[in-house]
Write a structure and sequence with these properties.
mainly beta, single chain, two-stranded antiparallel ribbon
């Protein structure tokens, strides 16, 4: 009787050699599915690989990460699961990466940053605190005097953005809903508590 031995990158399933799943590799001949090993970086992150990979060199850091080669005091093994020679580092704030196996993350456009580590793409880049986005424009503008612009603020004139973060009027100042970016300093600061446009003390 002749027995079938599956080649590297494949395992036996119901009498047929099938490719190891994505994120795994198998370097030797054999039929056991457990021989298809999950890819793990030196610092313990699960990695990406194409189906049927035959070597740990096919393992790459995934989206929202960048990878570093093994270097002294930069990328050292810190996980007992490690079976590659790479470290995976999450993209820092203000950067993003939607491809696998990249050596760096892409920077957000000037004046923009991300709300969190590990951003996927430029859609996650929003105007940084102290700036606001003008609707219909890709850029950010400086927050006008008398207004406070939290992270992700957009032009308060927009009427089609119910969930948007709007610039806030600082206490002691006033602006109207018709022209919210034109701010006036109140002679009596107690009459102007700030907040949304058209806000006055006592209504």
């Amino acid at each position: 009787k002749i027995f079938t031995m599956c080649p590297p990158g494949k395992y036996m399933k119901e009498g047929v050699c099938e490719a190891c799943e994505a994120g795994r590799f198998k370097g030797d001949y054999g039929n056991d599915a457990d021989a298809c090993m999950l890819c793990y970086s030196l610092n313990g992150f699960q990695m990406h690989s194409a189906p049927g990979s035959t070597s740990s060199s096919a393992c790459l850091c995934g989206q929202t990460y960048y990878q570093q080669a093994k270097e002294p005091q930069v990328c050292e093994a810190s996980s007992g699961l490690a079976n590659t020679d790479l470290c995976c580092r999450q993209c820092v704030e203000g950067t993003h990466q939607e491809l696998t196996g990249q050596s760096s993350c892409e920077k957000c456009p000037s004046g923009k940053t991300t709300r969190y580590l590990g951003a996927l793409n430029e859609d996650d880049c929003e105007c940084e605190p102290g700036k606001y986005k003008i609707i219909g424009s890709l850029g950010c503008a400086d927050c006008p005097p008398g207004l406070s612009c939290p992270f992700g603020s957009v032009d308060a004139i927009s009427t089609n953005c119910s969930n948007c973060i709007l610039p806030q009027v600082k206490p002691g100042h006033y602006s109207s809903q018709d022209d919210p970016l034109s701010v006036f300093k109140c002679l009596d600061p107690s009459a102007c508590p700030g907040g949304l446009p058209d806000t006055c003390a006592g209504g």
